[in-house]
UniProtKB/TrEMBL annotation:
<feature type="domain" description="AAA">
    <location>
        <begin position="16"/>
        <end position="154"/>
    </location>
</feature>
<dbReference type="InterPro" id="IPR027417">
    <property type="entry name" value="P-loop_NTPase"/>
</dbReference>
<protein>
    <submittedName>
        <fullName>Cobyrinic acid ac-diamide synthase</fullName>
    </submittedName>
</protein>
<dbReference type="Pfam" id="PF13614">
    <property type="entry name" value="AAA_31"/>
</dbReference>
<dbReference type="InterPro" id="IPR025669">
    <property type="entry name" value="AAA_dom"/>
</dbReference>
Length: 250
């Protein structure tokens, strides 16, 4: 079982900053350590499942079924998880192709809390890929509140700076603990002035480099594979340190 009770990591950040890629790579890193990981994909505007792996059979289960079930039970959750052929340690729970925010009845915060509490019993670790649109995603907002750790991901562009400037005030209540967020600058290219953006974000703890092979994996739906080539080393090293900081030593 995980050490120190740290189990649930929420990955949140500005639109297009690399939340989904980072969440997948973190889940894969834990799975490579033979931990059971549940990757929760919150985006209900661009459902993530059809964009990250090639399913042999059409996916006909959804997190929407779970959040709107009369009772959220382990059985309902497990029935709606997608198992992942390539890696038996990873399960996925997200919206399926074609769904949108109107596909299901509205759910309230208590449902999202119930789901996250139960996930702690189902998996060794839970990695949550949040939606940037917090005002539209109750599950993402709850994930920020109840996580054991939050990775806050930004990128080197003014849109990212603008996003945090407008959204962080929405998280000013102490329950969100924004001071504890682990700030990450993602997708950083060699010629980009990382320092300027680090300052704009009030300092960052980690920098995840831009790696072309990752972008290619994203396009070919192979992000759950290891990253090929030398450039992957620097990326993987940062990832391992983040996992260690978030979940502690075994
Ligand atoms: N370290 C990286 N190196 C190269 N490309 C990356 C890296 N991280 C992310 N990308 C690319 O950046 C783009 C955005 O990444 P991703 O989809 O993970 O962002 P996101 O924050 O989840 O976006 P959204 O807000 O739409 O959910 C993708 O094209 C992805 O391939
Ligand atoms: Mg995403």
């Amino acid at each position: 079982m995980p050490n120190k009770g740290k189990q649930l990591l929420t990955v949140w950040g500005s639109p297009g900053s690399g939340k989904t890629v980072s969440a997948i790579k973190l889940a894969k890193e834990l799975a490579d350590q033979k931990k059971n990981v549940l990757l929760l994909l919150c985006d209900d505007i661009c459902p993530t499942l059809p964009t990250i792996f090639k399913s042999k059979t059409p996916i006909d289960v959804s997190i929407g079924e779970v959040l709107t079930a009369p009772n959220i039970t382990q059985e309902v959750i497990l029935r709606n998880c997608v198992s992942f052929d390539k890696n038996p340690y990873i399960s996925l729970l997200g919206y399926k192709a074609g769904e949108n925010p109107f596909s299901y009845a509205e759910y309230k915060k208590d449902r999202a809390v119930d789901l996250l509490v139960l996930l702690r019993h189902i998996a060794d670790y839970v990695v949550i890929d949040c939606s940037s649109m917090l005002t539209e995603s109750i599950i993402s907002t709850v994930a920020l509140e109840v996580a054991d750790g939050v990775l806050r991901i930004g990128s080197c562009d003014l849109k990212s700076v603008s996003y945090f400037r407008s959204v962080l005030p929405l998280l000013s209540e102490p329950k969100f603990n924004v001071d504890k967020h682990i700030k990450v600058l993602s997708n950083v290219r060699p010629l980009q002035d990382g320092e300027e953006y680090k300052n704009a974000f009030g300092g960052v703890s980690y920098t995840l480099p831009y790696v072309q092979a990752i972008d290619e994996q994203n396009s070919s739906l192979t992000l759950f594979d290891s990253i090929p080539g030398k450039a992957a080393k620097a990326y993987d090293m940062v990832l391992k340190v983040i996992v260690k900081e978030v979940f502690g030593d075994e």
